[in-house]
Amino acid sequence: MTSTFLTAAPGRIADGGFKYWIIAPAIFLLLLVGIFPLIYSLVVSFMRITMMENDTSFAGLVNYTHLFKDKRLWESILHTLLITAIALPIELILGLLMAQLFLEKFPGRQILVALIVLPTIISPIVAGATWRLMFDQRYGPINQIISWFWGSEVVALWTINPNLVYPAILVCEIWQWTPFMFLILLAALSNVDKSLTDAAEIDGAGFWRTFRNIVLPAIWPVMAIAILIRGLDLARIFDVIWALTQGGPGTKTETISVYTYSQGFKQFETSYTAAIAFLVVALLTVIIVWAIRRMGLAK
Amino acid sequence: MAAVRTRRRLKLALRYLGAIALTLFFIFPVYWLFIISFKTPEEIFAYPPAWVPKSIQFANYAVLFKDGDAETVLNSLILAGASTVIAMLLGTIAAYSLVRFKTGGENLAVWIISQRLMPPIAIVFPIFLLYVFLGWVDTFHGLIILYTAFSLPYVIWMMRGYIEDIPLELEESALVDGLSRWQVIWKVVFPMARTGLFATAVFTFVFAWNDFLFALVLTRTEVTTYTVQVTHYFGGQSNFWAKIAAMSVLGTLPVFVTVAFLQRYLVRGISMGAVKG
User: Fold this and answer.
1) With contact defined as beta carbons under 8 Å apart, do B270 and B200 qualify?
2) In this model, does residue B277 exceed pLDDT 60?
3) Which one of A62, A91, B40, B250 has the largest count of C-beta atoms within 10 Å of its C-beta?
4) How far apart are CA B8 and CA B5, in angstroms?
5) Per-residue confidence (pLDDT) for residue B114, from 0 to 100
6) How far apart are CA B208 and CA A223, in angstroms?
7) Model's pTM, two decimal places?
8) DSSP letter string over A76-89?
9) How far apart are the first and last CA of chain B?
10) What radius of gyration, in Å, describes the C-alpha atoms of chain B?
11) Around Cβ A12, how many Cβ atoms within 10 Å?
12) B30 and A41 in contact by Cβ < 8 A?
């Protein structure tokens, strides 16, 4: 098919470079934002550029050895992993349960789905700002509601108390992105062949067995992509933290993105930031390749 | 029989109960944001918090327009709009090259989509230094180029799928009829793929519209976006509640309206085409 297309209109075969011309602008832009920063980071990470000095001579691995001694860096990676490890399974399971609930058609279903999806299309920074107002110890409704159940007045400092900041961040994150999982899984579940599940039911397979043996394999390709997208987004979490705690109290909720930002734009540790950026890309690449293999996404 | 029907009804009632409870949980913070933007200062700082404002008043919005803060929404609109149009044009012709000419083979396609996985924090610092060097910090074209580049992998990925669905015979007969390659793209490919174009454009737009990190780093005063403006109202001890809420609503409403109109494209766009919808 393609060959006929390529030889069609032989008079115009002179436009042999056409296929390159039309892809060139996109490639150029991708090189600009994808490859240039990496090469730049690699070069600069072997120098000694800080706020104080501008030493561009070869500095060896000094920045890279510093990575291993930087306690704050590894803590920030740990915080990121912690948030991802808690939020991702909850979003997935909650999204799946909700999709199951909305799978059968009932009057008003469309409207409810449309309303549930709203948090996902809000800007993460606005979502964070909204929960900042919700969590306010005095004028926010969260403490008010808790007080009703508690029986006496509760004054919880959600964005300041070290024991409460993570729950606050997680609630915001799960609130915003569970609808994303829900929407994708609802579509995937709707595409599952109903005759297969019905047949399994007639054969006496319970809900759980039907789900494991028929539904899950059918929705897995879509589910795996949803997990991958969400996992990556969680690994780079920045906006919500910025709006709620800015990494505080102290550095208690500093994630890898927040820490990199502060090294680059508050401390102006140019060379060291470049080394961190390289570490982040390397770590993520390893995780992504592993995940894609593991989830059977590679064709 | 009667027992079965009662059970059915009970099940439906439970389903409704669950569905409505969930909807309330997900919608309540949005509702809260909206009502704060309509409240008077006395009501915002009433204790205990009021769940229904006594009256709807727009003074909080009027202030934003008077001070010029509302212009940041316009900045977001220009940035997101321009980058979406450019990304759709460049991305679609690039996808066309990948699909019809197999340019670069499967490797190039995989490389392009892998660029979508690049963490913004890893590139924003080098980009910032580059932009300082070029004098592009706090300019419209600087951010438009960045947003465009960042959207391209997604656009190319999505449009690849839609272009594959266009029957090749249409393009062949257009070529035989004497149309140039460019004309084929403009007169056959774009119109045939318009559903896909819309669906992809919505998400490209929303991505740029909702961005915070790039705008935080690369803008100062001239092209501040609404997301950055919202954070200007945060305070360590006291927040500018009314302004946070009103600014957030101004920035959120356009997205709500867009998505409401284009709801049927939502699922396919959100899942990067993994779900045919």
Assistant:
1) no
2) no
3) A91
4) 5
5) 86
6) 25
7) 0.92
8) HHHHHHHHHHHHHH
9) 38
10) 24
11) 14
12) no
